[in-house]
Structure prediction request, 429 residues.
Amino acid sequence: MSKKISIFWFRRDLRLEDNTALSVALSSGKPVLPVFIFDENILNELDRDDARVAFIHQTMSNINTALKKFNSGVLCMHTTPEKAWKELMNKYDIENVFYNKDYEPYAKERDEKITALLEGNSIDVKSFKDSVIFEENDVLKNDGGAYTVYTPYKNKWLSLFKPELIEEQKCDFTKNLLEFSSDFLSLKDLGFTASDIEVMPYNLKHLDIYADKRDFPSDDITTYLGPHLRFGTVSVRKLIRGLNGLESVFLSELVWREFFTQILYHYPKVVTQNFRAKYDGIKWRNNQEDFEKWCNGTTGYPMVDAGMRQLNQTGYMHNRVRMITAGFLCKHLLIDWQWGEAYFAKKLLDYELASNNGNWQWAAGTGCDAAPYFRIFNPITQLKKFDKDFKYVRKWIPEFDGFDYPDPMVDHKTARERALKVYKEGIEN
Prediction:
């Protein structure tokens, strides 16, 4: 093809509205071809019925259908990014490539390689901030260093925030879309099957009571936003534009997400190591049988078991319950947080490396701004406080009131004393 074109590369921004790189691409003056790559490097690590793949596939299919009214569509490819871009360069005369940034280690390495490949072939590459309000170097301490404590980071974030940062990035599809049509890849073409687990639509109608009710899982005022933020089916700018100034607790959750994103960027070692090296001496028990009881929700602690069963059956887990289940694994069972982090990564529909890693290290006491190691949640007290009528527990544990529900696998007092001893010895060594 002799006609020069631009390519917009969909990644973690699976939407047609308020999309920064897409907006700029459509204003570039060249016909724009939207491209999505089902990355074999990622897909090959997943179960064949992974619900997240089915969600991405359905989302991209919907986008492809929406673009048909403009005589265009999405070119979906199933290969590695490097092979995909070599194929695209052979087929099209590409002048520009536009994409929104991704800050995870694999994505950074991928983007560096692809950018070098494209620029080596005289193609201009432009990347944009889109999934966050402030990225890795936007919110720094006065000495130029990265924040490692949340509250000062949040205060600086709020002081830097301006309304223009959340202005809509309008996308005009009436011009500059490349006329394009092809058969859209099926889920079967990708080697995947539909899942019994589905991504829920996000729901913001309870934000006025979010601060008061968010810790009570049976109330189910969850926004279900996680997967939509993870895959960019909603713009974070749109979410904040919709706030009326009273939802400070909800906004704080969005700021936590950006805090952990910049921690992962500046301290990539956290993927496989403790943020705080002084915890490297902890002698984890890592008992496989105990781990399986935790995974299956058969620990004998109702709040832990209900949470794990909710996760296994739906791909979701209430945020308060995530803290309880994670703390139980690390403190009561003395199992390395990386075991739990990996299990959540496999099961959570909203799995996001930065937040998942940050929250697990927080629960284990090994992370930045983490709970002190001697803070050990009592799952019995947590149950009484946040599910005193057992509504959440009975929903997920049908045998709760019968003889089949197991006794607690460990005694809380004994497990707490053991954890304190092991942590203290690990730190001192």
User: Anything to note?
Assistant: The chain has three domains: 4-131, 132-167+205-266, 271-428. Residues 248-266 form the longest helix (19 residues).
